[in-house]
UniProtKB/TrEMBL annotation:
Residue span(s) of domain Glycosyltransferase 2-like: 13-141
GO terms, molecular function: hexosyltransferase activity
Source taxon at top rank: Bacteria
Protein name from the UniProt record: Glycosyltransferase family 2 protein
Organism listed in the record: Flavobacterium rhamnosiphilum
Keyword annotations from UniProtKB, A to Z: Transferase
Gene3D superfamilies: Spore Coat Polysaccharide Biosynthesis Protein SpsA, Chain A
InterPro entries in the record: Glyco_trans_2-like (IPR001173), Nucleotide-diphossugar_trans (IPR029044)
Length: 299
């Protein structure tokens, strides 16, 4: 069976989320709702859905999400039982009616092959207007290839589009980045291990971006810091696994963060310099020297 975990906080779009669960054509799942000490009590709304799908509601007495979304996700997962596969569903996101059915229809194809399964997605605004194309993915994709596609803005991704195996979650957990940004992206790469990410494009998850959502109100400085920490992990640990052109792309992203932060020391710059040399490309090396010279002259 599947565990669908909802870290609840906002009531405004929650009805649409619950409705999408009630409309599932296959009810072989259980929902675990963890209320992050919200001031917006959902119990009246939840009563409306009793008997329509299997769910457990638990209200936590203290708020964690305001300080650490990761700790809130993880205590909500702890509400679940021993289901093999887990999804963390946002309290404003919507599952396609056939999502669970399509998961089970393709289960034999991916269960031994993959640790992470994702679905196609589309973005919705707070007025219920679709504001993006439907994002589909390769049927099978290495985690590191997904990392590059997302980094280059060739695709999008968010937490609610994924199922992952409990055993790999317990092995790696989610890594803490500021406001939870990029923590899910890092997880899909950790959780997938050396196995591909499997995509089910036949079902779509609708992701809502609004003034009530974290994505819709993101602080740019916090987002930039989270992106840097996420990139830094690959920069220091997985750079060699990328193609040369992608290694240079990552180096440039790190370099531009250094310009942005104004807090990086000489040692960091020197380490970056050696990375450019070890991934020798005369044009990129020339441009790097030119940017450094301009930066020095400007200061």
């Amino acid at each position: 069976m599947l565990a669908i975990v909802i870290p609840y906080y906002k009531l405004i779009f929650f009805d649409a989320t619950l409705q999408s669960l009630a409309y599932q054509t296959d009810k072989r799942f259980k929902v675990y709702i963890g209320d992050d000490a919200s001031s917006e009590n959902p119990t009246d709304l939840l009563n409306k859905y009793k008997g329509k799908f299997d769910f457990v509601y638990h209200r936590f007495e203290s708020n964690l999400g305001g300080g650490s979304l990761i700790r809130q996700w993880e205590r909500c997962i702890a509400l679940s039982s021993n289901e093999e596969w887990i999804m963390i569903l946002g309290d404003d996101d919507i599952l396609g009616n056939n999502l669970v059915e399509s998961f089970y229809n393709q289960y034999k194809e991916f269960n031994e092959l993959c640790n992470v399964v994702r679905f196609a997605s589309v973005v919705l605004n707070e007025q219920d207007y679709t504001i993006s194309e439907i994002y589909e993915h390769p049927r099978l994709e290495k985690g590191i290839d997904f990392f590059i596609r997302k980094l280059k803005w060739e695709t999008r991704s968010s937490l609610s589009e994924y199922f992952f195996k409990r055993e790999v979650y317990l092995k790696y957990h989610f890594k803490e980045y500021p406001s939870g940004f990029y923590s899910d992206d890092r997880a899909w790469i950790d959780f997938s291990e050396d196995k591909p990410i499997y995509t089910i494009n036949e079902s779509v998850v609708t992701i809502r971006i609004s003034d009530s959502s974290l994505s819709g109100t993101a602080d740019k400085d916090i987002l930039k810091q989270a992106e840097y920490l996420y990139l830094k992990y690959f920069y220091e640990n997985k750079l060699s696994s990328l193609l040369k052109k992608n290694r240079l792309f990552v180096l440039k992203k790190i370099e531009f963060y250094y310009y942005f932060s104004h807090t990086v020391n000489f040692k960091s710059w020197f380490y970056l310099y050696t990375k450019y040399w070890s991934n020798f490309d005369i044009r990129e090396l020339y441009r790097f020297h030119k940017r450094i010279l301009l930066k020095i002259l400007k200061n």
